[in-house]
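User: My advisor, Dr. K., asked me to get a structural model of this assembly before our group meeting. I'm new to this, so sorry if the format is off. These are the inputs:
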Amino acid sequence: MKVSREQVAENRRMILDAAGRLFRERGFEAVTVAEIMQAAGLTHGGFYGYFTSKDDLIAQALAEALANSSIRADDLAGYAASYLSPGHRDDRACGCATAALAADTIRQKDSARSVMTQALEQQIERLSRIAPGRTAAQKRNAAVVNWSTMVGALILARASDDPVLSDEILADTRAWLAAQSEVQGKVRAPRKAREKTAGAR
Amino acid sequence: MKVSREQVAENRRMILDAAGRLFRERGFEAVTVAEIMQAAGLTHGGFYGYFTSKDDLIAQALAEALANSSIRADDLAGYAASYLSPGHRDDRACGCATAALAADTIRQKDSARSVMTQALEQQIERLSRIAPGRTAAQKRNAAVVNWSTMVGALILARASDDPVLSDEILADTRAWLAAQSEVQGKVRAPRKAREKTAGAR
DNA sequence: TGTACATCAGTGAACGCGCGTTCACTGATGTAC
DNA sequence: TGTACATCAGTGAACGCGCGTTCACTGATGTAC
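Assistant: The format is fine. Below is the predicted structure of the whole assembly, which you can bring to the meeting.
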């Protein structure tokens, strides 16, 4: 049964969304094409009308998931507080696609790897704007390290079976990044203002 | 054909070694039982004489791979220099099992997850001994953050398609950890001694 | 020490299963008049 | 605006394939005498 052009666009969005969520939750390999199509409300046969292969979908769904990060903040401490929250740790399906899929992407085709690399570069640029440091080079250096720290901490917090250890990893890393933000970034800001910013979600 | 008891022990070691290497290189799911047995010089049929299932092997091979980290150093800067070297980045099969498999392990059975959690706790304790800080709590906090940073940086450096960006991530994070080690950890050590230690492999 | 035989590690064919992908078919859409 | 029909998105059975796992068999090991 043919379907309207709007419905086609809507279906395409549904497939990419479902794939993005399932991939982040269970990895590229463990999720099947049939499962994604079912989650999108379709049957598996129609898949190849939208994508040329599963690898094609992986690259496109990854790009979509990496672009739609829900984490937003104007300062490093606020960003870290949100990124390293228990809520983000526990919601892999809708959380950071880098933390969920960077390790998986290393073993994927070039199409997916290049998408991940572009997103990584963009994220470093974005973090450079709120990173501590006087020169542009210092800010970028700090952004690289801060991003590594956040992604690493989220992966390790998720990897830990033990909720106490997992919470410790998140809390320690949050505190560290907040301190970074304080000491190096905003030496001139008044104390009250700083505390407000750092405490905000 | 029956085989001597020593040969059985040797074969077991070969299977665990091959599995550890292949898993680190390509992930748990992409590697097949037959492939592992072939890499160990055996045929796939014999597998279930050694392990009850692939999941059983995953847990045991992960424990083995996590225990046999080749990275050793007496100070943080030296450890970071080794851990964040291009050589370690490029040799996934023999490198850090945490960086290679932590994200994969999140989606594995409890047996593997508990192995990873134990290794994580041990590594934090180990790093606490060489971490900067005055109190034990400060040292442990720093160890948690430093480990998150190293694992995150290695994963991101591997994820990057672009060798320039990849090298930048390694170099920036190495420099950062060396600075951490300098500023907070060894304020009392004579300058010459510090430089020697930090430069060592 | 030498011999006879029970044990059991390793082999490879075979199992059921689910994967990614293909394809003939269906029927609503959207265009031509 | 209404009607006729070509288009093509979606369906579900079917494809070949490779997976994890099983099992009857083989023949070297290692024990009992």
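One thing worth pointing out at the meeting: The radius of gyration of chain A is 19 Å.

User: Perfect, thanks a lot.
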